[in-house]
Amino acid sequence: MQRTTVLQEDWWKLRAEATWGNPATGEDVEVLRAQNDQLRRALAGRAVIDQARGMVMVLTPCTRGAARGLLVNVSRQCDSKLPEVAAAMVAAWEGKPLPDRMERALRRTLRNFHAQGRQCDMRRAGRSSR
């Protein structure tokens, strides 16, 4: 069964009147520009976060969620924003050293992650041997 939706011609006219009938004020334009800039920064930050997440997934066999969790933990320990931590990790991959505070936080976070993973593996091994 095929479903077809018919748009009424009046709807398009109303839409056009709403768009062109109310000219934007200077304040509206400024608000839109600010929102546009904010969205651009957010998208740029996301790309860097995804890149750092991929690096963590390669170096530490884990899922996307776990890799993001690791980055968030490092971010919290360093009292930095997530895109800043991600950018520092990507720069470190390219040869620039991580800041000392961030490196210590990353080591702590990875140590805790691996310790939790071993505990889970021991529990599974204990259950399967019974």
Keywords:
about 130 residues; mainly alpha; 5 helices; disordered C terminus
Short description:
With 130 residues, the chain is mostly helical. Helices cover 80% and strands 0% of the residues.
Describe the structure.
It is elongated, with a radius of gyration of 24 Å. It contains 5 helices and no strands. The protein has helices spanning 9-21, 26-59, 64-78, 82-93, 100-129. By secondary structure, it is mostly helical. The model is unreliable at 119-130 (pLDDT under 50). The longest helix has 34 residues, at 26-59.
- End-to-end Cα distance, whole Å, is 55 Å
Rg for CA atoms = 24 Å
Q: Strand content of the residues, in percent?
A: under 5%
- List the secondary-structure elements in sequence, H or E: HHHHH
Average pLDDT: 78
- Beta-strand segment tally: 0
* Overall spatial form: elongated
Mind sketching the topology for me?
Elements lengths: L8 H13 L4 H34 L4 H15 L3 H12 L6 H30 L1
